[in-house]
Write a structure and sequence with these properties.
Shape of chain A: elongated
Largest interface: A-B, 144 and 144 residues
CATH architecture of the largest domain in chain A: 3-Layer(aba) Sandwich
Oligomer: homodimer
């Protein structure tokens, strides 16, 4: 990935990673590694994998989804149903060198691509395998999120049913878990020479997270947490509407942030009197949480009587912790107007589509953003990669193209 | 972290990481590194940081949140308001050695702990700094999630308002982004000798994600995506209720998964006839998504007439992609009964609380789970760490304790 202002090669420059994965988890991880400077070679079947045309689509018919999740990678297209195609992929994945033999995949039911096969060809290969459940069973973000209790906790307090996520959070967490695991395995290999077979189940990522947040122990002790709508759990946080129809999220996680709210809205004396009448202490998380509804009721008229801009000024001047609600189109509008100073976002020319709103890596090294790059055309780098990594000649490549083994 | 079945030291064994962070993002990342074998030293102010008693709480008053997010780390408590305390922390963070000088923090307004100060003491220090916004402004998961358009897209189709997440997804993604960045920086340092100052803003993590999913380009082209309740976007997926009051999420992302649904529910002929009358092709993502409501309507009576167990059998036998809805208490019950074979979950004795439901890392190396460990008592390792890393004598430590500089 390059950006005119950032010409350094990135901390992972020199690593070669073969990505044979589809959808979000594996590819988002692979893209992160590419943004950090690695040469990530994404291998797809000829014509693309199951995710190649996934929605949302550009009006050109190309997939915004695929082209956004696979930026800056090299693209190789191989007929992986043929013996010769499989041999090419295995050779790519296990090509020698201390910075190669790094594989990210999420395949099911492809025994010819097992760790054993890879390790036979390269004993110190590192394979990061993402799966649905720990037994290798099928699961996706949308089924895992319901199974670990998140949908049941989410949604308006009066919703009769659980509310699903739209954001595939588990996929994104799993992607960064996979990149962490790959770099950890590489660290070990650099020290010891040993390869690794690493498995990460999406269901395990989710179960570990709800355990890590203490929510399983909470449920074991107290039973299920009632749905509490847009209120933040365990302290004070909720949304408010302004006089001009905007909405904001206001949060007080610290005593200072709480005091700022009273200051900004002129309600400090109201809350002082309330604390006394309720024998409560709003300077504490538990005091604010227990009385969140009356606190919100006291604040609501103030926001309803002020515009968003007035609210912004008052809250910001007072040092309150808050953020606006925006729609996705609102994020786009702010980006186009340059009003939000969200310089992680960058426009990129995507062949076949045109200008798309893309992003640098959120990881800034030495205060610089990585910049972005377009996604490759499918098979754009097949010849380059096969000649560079496997030493295939033009004649070899011609034969493979003619046979339909590569594209 | 140890487990009777897994005695290998972990791929990051030997690394020493100083974590001076609070809440979820930094600490969840630090815990992942500890689970991978690193010595993670979490430094807190005396008496704990702002997150030490965050909800949910055990009936003992200890925090399930803190003890679940900080398992397996060493705990050091230092009065970081004193010059001598700050000196101790800086010395810990910049102690020499190729496997040290690794810092994860999320501090605001502590110039004595800046990268410049750290780098003056150790030129190749690696500092991973997590912040709210890229300018260093305050932001938390709950404000970022609303600002990047996610809350607006989430919730029942008829909900008049945006619906907040309960899961702090951005914090968890940021935590794994931080661990990836740390290991990438270490990789570079091992090769080049150079340290790194790395910044990760929570707001950037979220903006990058919605860009990476193609959602900003979609909104730029089509405007906002309407809220569509529990329907999965872009293919077929939605929830159904069974005759015995259970709920499941059913998904068809591939033609085979779609065929399985018709097979399991005896509706293949209905859908064939519908395809003809609608001139639709349900074998495609777009065909299924466009007609998701009538597809769901056709399927709903079948699920309403069958129990969860009958549904489980039929869907599983047919090879459908589905998952149950569980409450958090349901996850706990299945864990206790051993019915779900979710062996990533492990029980741990947490001093002060008792048995808690904890988790191994979701990352399995060589097919083994890492096991888990309790969280330390605050300051449990202060003396060990200060003597081991800084060479302080018993007399030094005694003086520091007496002065209230450490605990």
């Amino acid at each position: 990935m390059t950006d005119p202002e950032n010409t350094s090669p990135g901390p992972l420059s020199g690593l070669r990673i073969v990505e044979f994965a589809s959808f979000v988890a594996g590819p988002s991880g692979g893209m992160s590694l590419a943004q950090l400077g690695a040469d990530v070679i994404r291998v797809d079947p000829i014509g693309g994998n199951i995710d190649y045309r996934r929605w949302p689509l550009a009006s050109s018919g190309d997939s915004f989804y695929w082209t956004s999740l696979n930026r800056g990678k090299r693209s190789v297209a191989i007929d992986v149903r043929s013996a010769e195609g499989r041999e090419l992929l295995l050779a790519l994945a296990t090509a020698p060198g201390p910075d190669a033999g790094l594989v990210v995949d999420n395949n099911v039911g492809r025994p010819w691509f097992s760790y054993q096969v890879l390790a036979q060809r390269r004993a110190d290969v590192i394979r990061i395998h993402i799966e649905g459940t720990a037994g290798g069973g099928a699961a996706v973000d949308y089924t895992v999120n319901t199974a670990v209790g998140i949908a049941d906790m989410t949604g308006p307090a009066d919703s009769p049913h659980p509310v699903n996520h739209v954001l595939p959070a588990w996929d994104l967490i799993a992607g960064q878990t996979a990149t962490t695991a790959l770099l950890a395995a590489l660290h070990r290999r650099n020290r010891s020479g040993a390869g690794s077979y690493v498995q990460i189940a999406l269901a395990d990522v989710a179960l570990a997270a709800v355990a890590n947040l203490g929510w399983l122990s909470e449920a074991a002790q107290d039973g299920n947490r009632a749905r509490h709508g847009n209120y933040m759990y365990g302290s004070f946080g909720v949304d408010f509407a302004t006089s001009d129809g905007r909405r904001l999220m206001l949060v007080a996680l610290t005593p200072r942030q709480w005091t700022a709210i009273g200051l900004a809205t002129g309600t400090a004396n109201v809350f002082a009197a309330l604390e006394e009448s309720l024998s409560a202490d709003f300077a504490t998380d538990e005091g604010r949480y227990a009385h969140r509804e009356v606190i919100a009721a006291v604040l609501r008229p103030w926001f309803a009587a002020h515009t968003f801009d007035e609210t912004d000024k008052a809250l910001t001047d007072a040092g309150a912790l808050w953020g606006p609600y925006r729609t996705m189109a609102g994020v786009v509008a702010d980006h186009r107007a340059g009003t939000a100073s969200e310089t992680v976002l960058v426009d990129v020319e995507q062949p076949g589509i045109g200008s798309v709103i893309s992003s640098s890596s959120p990881v800034r090294f030495d205060k610089s953003y990585s910049g972005s790059a377009p996604a490759a055309r499918l098979g754009q780098h097949t010849d380059d990669v096969l000649s560079e990594v496997l030493g295939l000649s033009d004649a070899d490549l011609g034969r493979l193209h003619d046979a339909g083994t590569v594209s």
